[in-house]
């Protein structure tokens, strides 16, 4: 019962979660990651719905023969042709494209919200290069108007990360793009915990004159020193030593224990290769390299080590480590057999990730690859879901999954395409045709929302 | 030839030559200067249109492309091309300077490097011309004198060295001027006064030393457009107020996220705007009423506008210009209007002649493999003033070295 004793020092607020950790199949002395701030997300009410006459991209990477989707109790209960409606409402979409909801694995909505005033800088805890004790969810403002615009762009799930100032930036949080009053009301239930780490220029620039790291050498030393501390902390718990709870080391121990997925900001190919060996040294895995502007240079290495890359279509050149960006990064990484995906890192870009994938897809094929539209879609929802550990719940249109669905006005790989309807867990969240759209408190009373009522 | 409208161009020859001086375009979608499109066959010889008719005989021995699109060269009305290699490295960044010696007199042209790699990277995406905009620094709102370049990497690519004056109002200007919008606008009013002044010594102006005041005289007379960064509707009205005092001013507002709230006033006072059709968030208290419909309202009100990628200019440079225009079309702007807003409209503002795309003329034009405003399209050939320009850039060199379709198995540095 070592785990239980370790829990005695926890605050009352998380005691319930902690006792829950004890009744699993963890053996005595095993490290168990405490959880807190549980999700209170509830899907909005929905009716049974049969979508017919659809052109379906299902996210599996294979061309779909289906033209109909049946949604019951917020879940995709059937996908195929000639489905029986039973008592479901029938929605004939007249041949329009129907896709999974888009998943953005790299967003700062809520922790760098609009308006971007000083008081809203909640994305980087720039007080120390090691802040694995902080959690992005404690800085997310659910009233960021960016969430509403991202929904209009078809984004139903998103991963909010701390910024990249620190070597260990803190925990990330996976959110449903739900119009909630609290961040708990947005948290994706039971999504795996994540940790943001950062390579390269940012940590050494921010801390170069503040005690370091001041170089890429210092960055790596900083990772290693703290993995040593974390391994020691974890060992003490496993030995029944009951160390004083240390939030910083607890997160790192959670990574070493396989409970927390590492998402690492890294641009340069050679740096990613160093990180791959670092992870081997301390026996953990990297889920995803973020930005990964040079991933195309080591795509084989990424495939070999089963590490995903989350990339832009054409951002480059704003700092030295982004100078070698090419328009074919995503398709080249995919072509090597590695897990590739798009990401936004931006409140405008997140609204049209379908266009970003369209650019990457077309440029890849122009460079001689032969990538289908169905495969390219996996960069928008399937691979982000995989990298976040939620592919069993969303990311594709397959039976038993959450009914996260976008109905498009045009081919989603056209600049003209707009989501007409967005469903989350089977509930209609956005409807261009009737004006249904969540509105942030912040936008109330502005002329943009007063419409006809404005003076 | 084939009369069906083929949206995606099909090359009958395996690859487009690096310098396609001569081409035959079968059933091309020819985008007129008006932005409207007609379908014609086009024979291009030595970089010029040799023949253009509804139905031409396919010549032999010439690269033939079916269903291509031909547009004017795209004109980026707001860029930093040629004056910054890497934004985050100040040693490479000539966009702004903090100095008490000069402000308005500083010329982007003096910093411009026609071989900077971003120029070819942007050109490869169809941008043939760009306005290069210097930014204010220190405690002044004056960025200095902007220029216009053609993007051909040639030493003579600067077309206008003194094309416009850039100043910042709104939050950006206020923070430079000490903290308030009032202080920023007072700098602009003082500059207009100083431009009228006869200096006996170089330091006697209200905000300008002698050289800056001289540079501003062309603004005062209306010979040089005054480009003002501003967003909030109330700022736009104050700009109109200044123009009432100095009617000769030729004003172009950049940003203008709230222009839709005062569109009629902008039209009445001939204020031009550069807008980004993607701006729809209250990024700051400057743009609480930003809306995707901004450009639609401007079109209805008769405001003259150009389109720019303001939201992504530091990370994509000018390369994604067509996508920004395409999004305006997706929002409901007529196609021809969006096309003009990235070609003839900004070119006209700065007196740049993109040339007549007619038989025998040395024109600037881009041949695309699909609709130029579509995200899946890309140029296959580009002509600037009747000369084919290279379709390669640093980006394509990196692409070719690491292309998984490349069978070369030598170490990458030898490829």
Protein chain pair with the most extensive contact, residues per chain:
A-B, 55 and 48 residues
**N-to-C series of helices and strands of chain B:** EEEEEEEHEEEHHHEHEHEHEHHHHEEEH
- Radius of gyration of chain A (CA) equals 22 Å
CATH superfamily of the largest domain in chain B: Metal-dependent hydrolases
Q: Kindly report the oligomeric state of this protein.
A: heterodimer
Q: Any guess at the CATH architecture of the largest domain in chain A?
A: Alpha-Beta Barrel
Q: How many E-type strands of chain A?
A: 17
CATH topology of the largest domain in chain A: TIM Barrel
In terms of structural class, how would the helical and strand content of chain B be classed?
Answer: alpha/beta
Secondary-structure class of chain A = alpha/beta
What is the helical fraction of chain A, as a range of percent?
Answer: 25-40%
The proportion of strand residues of chain A reads 15-25%
Q: What is the strand content of chain B?
A: 15-25%
* Number of domain units of chain A: 2
Give a short account of the largest sheet of chain B. Answer: 9 strands, mixed
Strand order of the largest sheet of chain A: 7-8-9-10-11-12-13-14
- How far do the termini of chain A sit from each other? 67 Å
What can you see in these coordinates?
The complex is a heterodimer of chains A (455) and B (415). By secondary structure, chain A is an alpha/beta fold. Helix content of chain A is 26%, strand content 19%. In chain A, the strands form three sheets. Chain A has an eight-stranded mixed sheet with strand order 7-8-9-10-11-12-13-14. In chain A, strands 2-6-15-16-17 form a five-stranded mixed sheet, with no helix packed on it. In chain A, helix 5 crosses helix 6 and helix 9 crosses helix 10. The model of chain A is unreliable at 1-27 (pLDDT under 50). Chain B has 415 residues and is α/β, with parallel strands linked by helices. Helices cover 25% and strands 23% of the residues of chain B. In chain B, the strands form two sheets. In chain B, strands 1, 2, 3, 4, 5, 6, 15, 16 and 17 form a nine-stranded mixed sheet that branches. In chain B, helix 7 links the parallel strand 13 and strand 14 (305-307). Classes of the chains: A alpha/beta (455), B alpha/beta (415). The interface between A and B is large, with 55 and 48 residues.
């Amino acid at each position: 019962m070592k785990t239980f004793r370790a829990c005695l020092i926890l605050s009352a607020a998380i005691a319930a979660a902690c006792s829950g950790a004890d009744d699993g199949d963890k053996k005595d002395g095993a490290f168990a990651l405490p959880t807190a701030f549980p999700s209170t997300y509830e899907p909005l009410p929905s009716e049974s719905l049969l979508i017919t006459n659809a052109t379906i991209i299902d996210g599996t990477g294979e061309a779909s023969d289906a033209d109909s989707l049946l949604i019951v109790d917020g879940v995709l209960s059937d996908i195929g042709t000639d489905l029986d409606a039973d008592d479901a409402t029938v929605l004939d979409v007249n041949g329009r494209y129907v896709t999974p909801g888009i998943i953005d694995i790299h967003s700062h909505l809520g922790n760098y919200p609009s308006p971007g005033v000083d008081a809203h800088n909640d994305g980087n805890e720039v007080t120390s290069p090691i802040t694995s004790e902080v959690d992005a969810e404690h800085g997310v403002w659910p009233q960021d108007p960016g969430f509403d615009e991202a929904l209009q762009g078809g984004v139903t799930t998103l991963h909010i990360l701390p910024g990249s100032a620190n070597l260990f930036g803190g925990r990330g949080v996976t959110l449903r793009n739900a119009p909630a009053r609290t961040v708990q009301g947005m948290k994706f239930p039971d999504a795996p915990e994540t940790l943001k780490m950062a390579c390269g220029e940012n940590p050494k620039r921010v801390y170069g004159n503040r005690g370091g790291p001041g170089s890429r050498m210092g960055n790596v030393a900083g990772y290693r020193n703290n993995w040593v501390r974390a391994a020691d902390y974890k060992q003490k718990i496993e030995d029944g030593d009951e160390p004083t709870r240390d939030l910083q080391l607890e997160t790192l121990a959670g990574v070493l224990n396989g409970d927390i997925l590492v998402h690492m900001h890294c641009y340069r190919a050679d740096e990613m290769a160093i990180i791959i060996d670092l992870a081997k040294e301390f026996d953990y895995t990297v889920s995803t390299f973020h930005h990964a502007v040079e991933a195309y240079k080591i795509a084989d290495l990424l495939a070999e080590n089963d590490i995903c890359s989350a990339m832009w279509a054409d951002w480059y050149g704003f700092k030295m480590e982004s100078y070698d960006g090419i328009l074919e990064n995503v398709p080249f990484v995919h072509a090597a057999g590695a897990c590739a995906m798009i990401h936004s890192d931006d409140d405008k870009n997140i609204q049209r990730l379908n266009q970003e994938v369209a650019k990457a897809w077309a440029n890849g094929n122009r460079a001689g690859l032969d990538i289908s539209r169905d495969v390219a879609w996996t960069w928008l929802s399937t691979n982000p879901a995989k990298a976040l550990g939620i592919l069993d719940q969303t990311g594709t249109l397959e039976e038993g999954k959450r009914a996260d669905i976008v109905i498009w006005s045009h081919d989603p790989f056209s600049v003209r395409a707009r989501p007409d309807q967005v469903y989350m867990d089977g509930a209609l969240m956005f409807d261009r045709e009737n004006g249904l759209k969540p509105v942030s408190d912040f936008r109330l009373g502005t002329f943009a929302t007063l419409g006809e009522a404005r003076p | 030839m084939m009369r069906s409208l083929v949206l995606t161009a099909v090359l009958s020859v395996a690859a487009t030559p690096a310098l396609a001086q001569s081409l035959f375009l079968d059933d091309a979608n020819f985008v007129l200067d008006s932005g409207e499109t007609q379908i014609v066959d086009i024979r291009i010889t030595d970089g010029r249109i040799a023949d253009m008719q509804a139905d031409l005989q396919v010549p032999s021995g010439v690269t033939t492309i079916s269903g291509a699109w031909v547009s004017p060269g795209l004109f980026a009305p707001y860029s930093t091309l040629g004056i910054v290699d890497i934004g985050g490295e100040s040693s490479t960044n000539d966009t702004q300077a903090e100095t008490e010696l000069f402000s308005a007199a500083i010329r982007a042209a003096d910093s411009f490097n026609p071989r900077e790699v971003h120029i070819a990277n942007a050109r490869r995406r169809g941008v043939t011309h760009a306005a290069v905009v210097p930014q204010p620094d220190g405690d002044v709102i004056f960025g200095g004198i902007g220029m216009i370049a053609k993007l051909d990497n040639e030493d003579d690519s600067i077309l206008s060295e003194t094309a416009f004056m850039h100043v910042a109002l709104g939050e950006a200007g206020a923070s430079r001027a000490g903290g308030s919008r009032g202080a920023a606008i007072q700098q602009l009013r003082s500059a207009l006064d100083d431009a009228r002044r006869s200096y006996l010594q170089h330091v006697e102006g209200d905000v300008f030393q002698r050289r800056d005041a001289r540079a501003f005289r062309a603004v005062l007379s209306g010979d040089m457009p005054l480009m003002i960064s501003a967003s909030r509707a109330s700022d736009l009205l104050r700009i109109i107020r200044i123009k009432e005092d100095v009617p000769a001013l030729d004003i172009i507002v950049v940003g203008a996220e709230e222009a839709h709230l005062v569109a009629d006033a902008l039209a009445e006072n001939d204020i031009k705007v550069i807008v980004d059709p993607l701006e729809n968030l209250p990024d700051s208290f400057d743009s609480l009423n930003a809306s995707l419909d901004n450009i639609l309202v401007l079109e209805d009100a008769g405001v003259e506008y150009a389109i720019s990628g303001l939201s992504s200019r530091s990370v994509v440079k000018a390369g994604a210009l067509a996508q920004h225009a395409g999004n305006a079309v997706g929002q409901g702007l007529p196609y021809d209007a969006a096309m003009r807003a990235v070609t003839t409209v900004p070119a006209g503002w700065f007196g740049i002649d993109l040339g007549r795309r007619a038989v025998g003329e040395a024109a600037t034009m881009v041949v695309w493999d699909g609709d130029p405003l579509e995200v899946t399209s890309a140029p296959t050939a580009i002509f600037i003033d009747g000369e084919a320009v290279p379709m390669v850039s640093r980006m394509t060199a990196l692409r070719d070295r690491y292309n998984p379709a490349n069978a070369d198995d030598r170490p990458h540095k030898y490829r």
